[in-house]
Amino acid sequence: MGLKHAFWVAFAASAVQAQTQSLWGQCGGVGYTGATQCANGSACTSLNAYYAQCVPASSTTTTRTTTPATTPSTTPSTTPSTTPSTTPATTIRTTTPLTTQITTTSSIRTTTSSSFITTTSSRTTTSSSRSTIATTLPTGTITDCLTSNDVPQYLPGSSNFNFEAKGFNLRIPFTPVAVAMPTTVPQVQAAVNCGARYRLKISAKAGGHSYANHGIGGEDGHLMINLKYINSVVLDTTTNVATVGPGARLGNVALGLYNQGKRAISHGTCPGVGVGGHVLHGGYGYSSHTRGLALDWLIEAQVVLADGSLVTTSSTQNPDLFWAIKGAGGSFGIVVSMKFNTFPAPESNIVYSYSFSWTQAQGRASLEALQAYANSTQFPRELNLRFWVGVFNTQILGVYYGSRADFDTAIAPLLSKLGTPSSSSISVMNWLDTLNNYAYATMSPPLDYDVHETFFAKSLMTTQLSPTALDAFVSYWFTASKPSRSWYMMIDIHGGPTSAISNITGEAGGSYAHRAAVFKYQFYDSVFGGGTYPSNGFDFLNGWVNSVTSVSPANTWSMYINYADTSLSVNDYGNFYWRANYPRLRSIKTTYDPNDVFHNPQVVQPV
Description:
alpha+beta
């Protein structure tokens, strides 16, 4: 067996060497095991020690290895800021002196980093016109380009690089070519120009909470642009319009808006999620049935396009792009600033939960009753409800925005169909306490947020479960073999006749394709303590979703990209995430990013 195994290893290695890489493809670098020969007369040229690329022979440069950035001597700070401030605070992460001090101002927190690679020049440039990508590779490396354009960066091999390039989902690690750390919009523009000139795919990381690690690229070899320092939260107390940087996290946004004027937007529960990706792909939370999605409060955005230009988008300026980013934002550019309408933070809210122990028949009857209730006008807009199934319990829980008496009246028709709960909890809370109740973490996450899990997740959106689909779903719930891991399934009452989400139609709804969906599901299966996810672990959640999709017409279900599913094929994800909107999205992608500069494995594809 040993000789036979050695033969196949040698055969495979020789086969790889015999393959050739196409122009602009990767051909080398630390850890790379693919083809090293370049096709069509192109030459393999190192951009840094971790990435080499096939480039035209006329544009090749001397192969070189770039020295990694200085390793920090201290671990990243995890101390949260609790009070908004307009005065920059300074957090030193290394003892290496700065060549140029770089400071970013935020109403929540600011940081001066001392381990960036940077230069002494203070030049900034703003592109005012669309341009084409160079057809030949310039001299030097991506590192040289970023440095000459005053873009701070981390290189592979440094502790700072490893920290910033670590994805939320540890099951699928990826390695970028470099991590750009801009503190200004012109630096974002310069980084995009550099990446495009070197034919690198570009990914923007706002909070880094993508289930598929799309902010890192969702694959190796991207230029990652980290937006963590572009994180300001500023409320205009005259207009009540908030201007927010994409690197701000939901907890900081909530605190910033409340502390500056007791205002709010509708958004999700996890305070560590970055506002950028959350908003631009939906943004659901415990106020969405009442107030709509986070993206429904977006009124304007500043976007850096693939040619480095900066454009304003709104319902009246570049409206096609505005429509596209409201549901598929990561595919078209890097949003560097967002403006939101806000609403007064509600100060008296009912936070509730009911626990149940059901038989399979009771579970079937309860889910049917929940669907009927959500589809009726009896379900008040003020009621936000989640149905939760976990390893240890089954619950309905959520928030009602109104009085206790009105809540009791609203919930009574549903409770009468669910049976007697084994326990319940009902409390009156103010806005911040309501958010904190479901945060399960600090509402003021640190700049160097460092939370990771090892997991697989799926989603589903359904308009109406047929009796057959209900039977299949509940049967799987009660009879399928459950893993000895930390798993859960939850269903949010997303749409219906009284939902604010479903009542937004036409262009105002953006490219978000699920307005008609009544139920929004998340399926999540993680490994305790961050161990290795098993190779056969995917069957559990795939089977649960398939129990519904296999017996349901295609026009009755879809999937939610904020719960990105890495198991979807390249032929399916676009249709599942964006349904009827996908052809229009592809056309807009072709207009604004025909070369697919902003790429990940589940991006809107150009025509």
